[in-house]
């Protein structure tokens, strides 16, 4: 939990070459999540290897999206599930007590329920509409303000965030965020990550689970 509570910047992306991952991590990414929707199991496991190596090289955390079984098989540090994915109890049963389980939340009620769900952290959003979640309406800054006041777990703002709009999310109370295209689509992923992290570090980390600001 200590690396999680100290984390600021979380990158979610599809299969990537290792040099890209190293660049993002050098720029300040703390967590990597492999999100390979529709890929065969063997493809996910093959794609996981550079994620694991890069995370280890930089002291970062590596998670797999949606599939607790593949998270275990890949030697990941955890799994991230959505409200419609594997049930929290099922995910925890598969990954065990020593791996992280993250949960997506989209409403104040889901943020409240997450505190007793067995999740280790939550993602709150989408703040803005995003093509990675087609059909999911934007939750806006009100959800971020709610999470800042009420979340009992480490939480990350998510949804269409980039260097052009992250400042308003930080002002609303976020000290951590998840990004996809802001780094994955950048010409210089290291510089993109560094810019995002600089904005996040203008807000102190909250104290959760007995861990104070880093």
CATH topology: TIM Barrel
| Integer tally of domains | 1
- Order of strands, main sheet, comes to 1-2-3-4-5-6-7-8
Q: Give the overall pLDDT as a whole number.
A: 93
The stretches of 5 or more residues where confidence is low (pLDDT under 50) are 209-214
**What does the largest sheet look like?**
8 strands, parallel, barrel
> SSE order, as H and E?
HEHEHEHEHEHEHEHEHH
| Name of the CATH superfamily | Aldolase class I
Rounded to an integer in angstroms, the radius of gyration calculated over CA atoms is: 16 Å
The number of helical runs is 10
General shape? globular
Quickly give the CATH architecture: Alpha-Beta Barrel
Please report which band the strand proportion falls in: under 5%, 5-15%, 15-25%, 25-35%, 35-45% or over 45%. 15-25%
Structural class: alpha/beta
Count the E strands.
8
DSSP helix fraction:
40-55%
CATH class: Alpha Beta
Straight-line N-to-C gap = 13 Å
Question: Care to give the gist of this entry?
Answer:
The protein is α/β, with parallel strands linked by helices and 214 residues long. The protein has helices at 2-6, 18-27, 41-58, 68-73, 88-95, 108-114, 141-150, 166-171, 181-184, 189-200, and strands at 9-13, 31-34, 61-65, 78-81, 100-105, 121-124, 155-158, 177-179. It is built from ten helices and eight strands.
Report on the architecture of this protein.
The chain is an alpha/beta fold. It has one domain: TIM Barrel. Helix content is 40%, strand content 16%. It has ten helices and eight strands. The protein has helices at 2-6, 18-27, 41-58, 68-73, 88-95, 108-114, 141-150, 166-171, 181-184, 189-200; strands at 9-13, 31-34, 61-65, 78-81, 100-105, 121-124, 155-158, 177-179. An eight-stranded parallel β-barrel has the order 1-2-3-4-5-6-7-8, surrounded by six helices. Helix 6 (108-114) links the parallel strand 5 (100-105) and strand 6 (121-124). The longest helix has 18 residues, at 41-58. The model is unreliable at 209-214 (pLDDT under 50).
């Amino acid at each position: 939990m200590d690396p999680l509570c100290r984390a600021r910047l979380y990158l979610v992306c599809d299969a990537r070459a290792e040099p890209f991952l190293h660049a993002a991590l050098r720029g300040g990414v703390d967590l990597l999540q492999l999100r390979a929707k529709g890929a065969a199991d063997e493809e996910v496991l093959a794609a996981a290897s550079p994620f694991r190596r890069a995370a280890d090289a930089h002291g970062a955390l590596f998670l797999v999206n949606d599939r607790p079984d593949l998270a275990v098989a890949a030697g990941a540090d955890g799994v991230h599930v959505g409200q419609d994915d594997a049930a929290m109890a099922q995910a925890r049963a598969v990954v065990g007590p020593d791996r992280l389980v993250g949960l997506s939340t989209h409403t104040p009620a889901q943020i409240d329920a997450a505190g007793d769900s067995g999740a280790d952290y939550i993602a709150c959003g989408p703040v803005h509409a995003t093509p990675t979640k087609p059909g999911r309406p934007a939750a806006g800054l009100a959800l971020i303000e709610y999470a800042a006041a009420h979340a009992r777990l480490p939480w990350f703002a998510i949804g269409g965030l980039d260097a052009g709009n992250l400042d308003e999310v930080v002002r609303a109370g976020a000290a951590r965020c998840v990004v996809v295209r802001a780094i994955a689509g950048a010409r210089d992923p290291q510089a993109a990550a560094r810019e995002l992290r600089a904005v996040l570090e203008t807000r102190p980390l909250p104290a959760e689970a007995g861990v104070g600001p880093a």
